[in-house]
Design a protein that fits this description.
17% helix, 4-stranded antiparallel beta sheet, 2 domains, alpha+beta
Length: 289
């Protein structure tokens, strides 16, 4: 939860009402939560001014002890999962004061995956640790569609598939935009992506899932519809957990379907030309209106 108060000479963000600390590593130190709260405020107030003490002095962030203000010995290794949701939280609170100015919710947290590949028992081959950074769709903006497979917020860039495959015995069979994943609206939410990963012949792998927006999809804004939630599964349909260490046996493929961003505005107001363009590019199905 966030309360945003605009004062005469500064803006206050208060995280009172947020859930308590978790036993799992998704807690955020307050400095991390402050950084992403200020990120959202800077995007609204002064996006072109560099970050420095003066430009950030107008923002104050406070919170009692909770999941966004974790204290020792709370685990914080996966703090990005909740921390990357803070900008949407702050922007959502601000949307009440700035109607028609704030984008819809996006995928938020990066879908980072740590892959530990090895030969199957009794076989020879390579062992390797592979880390991938992946992004779902951004929320639609008040006058533009959301950006597809684009992180907000983030300052990272994923490696090309060829470079990723070179680091270990894995094959990325598919990495493409996820049709129909962006929320409908006058402006469509950005699409998520589908990523299909397998070990090379004679290998298997474990992976650490660090994903969110699986049970709760990004919400639309101003009448826009929500994006589509993420999915983690194997190619035989076996459902996998969005968090935790899990095994993918030899011969199976892991499929990640990343969430799409929420839509903005009444879907009835989306132009026929925009929908035709979406269909022609495969962003939506042919039978979608």
């Amino acid at each position: 939860a966030a309360t945003v108060s605009v004062r005469e000479d500064h803006v206050e963000v208060d995280f009172t009402g947020t859930d308590p600390m978790s036993r799992w590593g998704i807690n955020c130190p307050i400095i991390y939560s402050k950084a992403y709260a200020c990120y959202a405020l800077k995007c609204m107030v002064a996006p072109d001014i560099p970050n420095n003490a003066a430009s950030l002095a107008f923002f104050t962030v406070s919170s009692p002890v909770n999941i966004l203000n974790a204290v020792r010995p709370a685990p914080v290794a996966l703090r990005h999962i909740f921390g990357h949701m803070v900008p949407d939280l702050v922007l959502g609170a601000f949307s009440k004061a700035l109607p028609g100015k704030i984008l819809a919710e996006g995928a938020g947290a990066l879908w980072n995956i740590h892959i530990s590949a090895r030969p199957v028992a009794g076989a020879s081959g390579r062992r390797a640790e592979v880390l991938m950074f992946n992004s779902g769709g951004m929320g639609a903006r008040p006058e533009l569609d959301g950006l597809s497979a684009t992180a907000f917020p983030s300052g990272v860039h994923t490696m090309p598939i060829e470079a990723t495959e070179h680091t270990g015995p894995i094959v990325i069979w598919r990495k493409e935009l996820r049709p129909n994943s962006g929320g409908d609206g006058e402006f469509r939410g950005g699409l998520g992506q589908i990523i299909e990963i397998a070990a090379t012949d004679g290998h298997e792998f474990d992976f650490s899932a660090m994903f969110d927006r699986v049970n709760h999809p990004p919400r639309g804004r101003n009448g826009g519809e929500p994006g589509v939630a993420g999915v983690v599964k194997l190619d035989d349909g076996t459902k996998m957990r969005p968090k935790g260490w899990q095994h993918v046996p030899a011969g199976r493929r892991l499929i990640l379907e990343l969430p799409g961003g929420g839509g903005y505005g009444d879907p009835a107001k989306r132009s026929a030309a925009a929908r035709a363009n979406d269909r022609s590019k495969g962003y939506i199905s042919e039978n979608d209106q």
